[in-house]
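Quick one:
INPUT:
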């Protein structure tokens, strides 16, 4: 347990030097040798460096104000509207300062400007800021501990991103391109040409409904899972946010959808339209979802991943003007999906399911570590006053 009783409150200006950079955004060069810190979380590249030092950097204006922080030790270029804290005294460990400053600074500028967003940072906002200061050995321990958490977060995020890229690449290669009869990459032992089938010829298509919210008996007791289009992003539906009663289903256009059907959002807010999912439980849906229950010749996971890869195409198929319009049962029925023997479908479906499990694992670990770090930061540094 960290003992904060002996920690001091010290102003930043007494512990390091503070200044801004000198470069402009047009100085960036993607082939540059040196990191170039600009007014965003993205680190650009530059062919020159302004400084060779250990420093903590924050954004001076723009959307990242009070939210973007970097630790650097070496040669780097810096935008003229970014601040650098450098030349740390022997009383301050730079790693510790990076973590405590990035935790406390945003709240400080919000309090000083009395606004929920910050347009710009003035030098005195940094210089006169007080930070909790334990002894230097304790700073080193805290800094190293939080650095390790950051390393683990970065590692899991990188693994997650790499697996997403692999999945995207394989989706493009393991399903045939338009007018092609074979995919570019196949599992060993499969050589036959693929065919195309219309959804309406191989699946039962059901659109749902919403019981009247004015009738309490339609929603109580909670007996039957009921899915809204906003939940389709869950991908694998094992639960729903709401349920309806048997009476509610009987008195609406809601219908039971068999387990392992492929669901597609016909309409919805933002990017919802065209999103697909598989229900792992029997359920009902609202009218903005079409459920496709395929015959015995199709593996639902195979269809799901094919349609997931065609998200942009599905959105372009929408009725109306293409931006505000929606899909409907007729349009869904006209979708052509690839067909190959079931064993190959099973292999493809299982392959992409395994990639999704890896993605979910790393994302979950990343989120857990972020929450743990947030908890540690909130409880590690004593609050002033």
């Amino acid at each position: 347990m960290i003992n904060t009783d002996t920690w001091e409150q010290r102003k930043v200006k007494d512990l390091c030097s503070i200044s801004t950079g000198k470069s402009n955004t047009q100085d960036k060069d993607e082939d540059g040798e040196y990191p170039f810190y600009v007014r965003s979380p993205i680190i650009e590249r530059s062919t020159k460096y302004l400084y060779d030092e250990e420093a903590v950097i924050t954004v001076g204006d723009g959307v990242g104000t009070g939210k973007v922080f970097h630790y650097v030790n070496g040669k780097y270029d810096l935008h003229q509207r970014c601040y650098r804290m450098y030349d740390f005294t022997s009383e301050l460990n730079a790693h510790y300062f990076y973590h405590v400053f990035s935790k406390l600074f945003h709240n400080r500028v919000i309090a000083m400007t009395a606004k929920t967003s910050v347009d710009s940072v003035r030098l005195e906002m940094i210089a006169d800021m007080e930070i909790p200061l334990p002894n230097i050995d304790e700073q080193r321990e805290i800094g190293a501990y939080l650095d390790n958490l950051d390393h683990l977060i970065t590692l899991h995020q990188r693994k997650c991103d790499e697996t997403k890229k692999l999945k995207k690449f394989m989706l493009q290669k393991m399903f045939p391109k338009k007018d092609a009869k074979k995919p570019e990459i196949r599992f060993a032992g499969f050589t036959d040409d693929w065919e195309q089938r219309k959804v309406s010829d191989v699946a039962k298509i059901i659109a749902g409904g919403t019981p009247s919210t004015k009738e309490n008996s339609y929603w109580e007791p909670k007996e039957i899972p009921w899915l809204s289009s906003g939940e389709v992003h869950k991908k694998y539906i094992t639960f729903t946010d709401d349920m309806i009663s048997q009476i509610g289903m009987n008195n609406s256009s809601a219908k039971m959808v068999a387990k392992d059907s492929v669901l597609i959002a016909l309409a919805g807010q933002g990017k919802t339209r065209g999103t697909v999912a598989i229900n792992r439980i029997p359920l009902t849906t609202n009218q903005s979802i079409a459920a496709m229950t395929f015959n015995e010749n199709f593996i639902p996971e195979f269809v799901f991943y094919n349609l997931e890869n065609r998200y942009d195409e599905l959105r372009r198929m929408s009725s109306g003007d293409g931006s505000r319009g929606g899909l409907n049962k007729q349009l869904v029925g006209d979708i052509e999906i690839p067909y190959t023997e079931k064993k190959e479908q099973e292999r493809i479906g299982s392959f992409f399911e395994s990639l999704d499990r890896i993605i979910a694992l790393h994302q979950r670990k990343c989120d857990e570590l972020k929450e743990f770090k947030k908890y540690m930061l909130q409880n590690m540094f004593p609050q002033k006053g």
